[in-house]
């Protein structure tokens, strides 16, 4: 039981650290590297550095709104039937 | 109310720093435009990291668990004995 918890926690921290380091490298270090360096092949074009977080934020917000709306509709239905 | 004011003051301070950075051009302009998005992403990563670390360090107390189980057994035993002695419950 504790091993599963520890594994999930370790996975979460690893994911967060990798996302943070990738994003930091992408946004801060990459503009200083010359255009011909091979490392540019591992990173998407810089516009995606803004598009992807904004898109993820929009998806999260819309999911939250849909969830809140569903809960409100359900509670309204219960009030009407009860 | 105090918490909301604190958070709003923090947001205003960050916005002020960002605008001053934009105006004085200490850092290259493209960096300053990317700063808010970068801060939001790093905040999300930090939250995820705290959740993961908390999960890893969550204390399960195996000795207390076994002790509690023994206590529960003793309580069940005593209540059975008690119920058996009262004629209303046993009869």
From TrEMBL, chain A:
Membrane-crossing residue ranges in chain numbering: 7-29, 49-73
GO molecular function annotation: enzyme regulator activity
Subcellular localization: Endoplasmic reticulum membrane
Main location: endoplasmic reticulum
Keyword terms: Endoplasmic reticulum, Membrane, Transmembrane, Transmembrane helix
GO CC terms of this entry: dolichol-phosphate-mannose synthase complex; endoplasmic reticulum membrane
Annotated function: Regulatory subunit of the dolichol-phosphate mannose (DPM) synthase complex; essential for the ER localization.
Protein name (record): Dolichol phosphate-mannose biosynthesis regulatory protein
Organism: Ensete ventricosum (Abyssinian banana)
Automatic annotation (TrEMBL), chain B:
Transmembrane segments: 34-59
Membrane topology category: Multi-pass membrane protein
Organism domain of life: Eukaryota
Pathway annotation: Protein modification; protein glycosylation
Keywords: Endoplasmic reticulum, Membrane, Transmembrane, Transmembrane helix
Cellular localization per UniProt: Endoplasmic reticulum membrane
Database matches in InterPro entries: DPM3
Single GO cellular component term: endoplasmic reticulum membrane
Pfam families reported in the protein's UniProt record: DPM3 (PF08285)
Main location: endoplasmic reticulum
Biological processes annotated in GO: GPI anchor biosynthetic process
PANTHER family the UniProt entry points to: DOLICHOL-PHOSPHATE MANNOSYLTRANSFERASE SUBUNIT 3
Subunit record text: Component of the dolichol-phosphate mannose (DPM) synthase complex.
Family statement: Belongs to the DPM3 family.
Entry function: Stabilizer subunit of the dolichol-phosphate mannose (DPM) synthase complex; tethers catalytic subunit to the ER.
Protein name, UniProt field: Dolichol-phosphate mannosyltransferase subunit 3
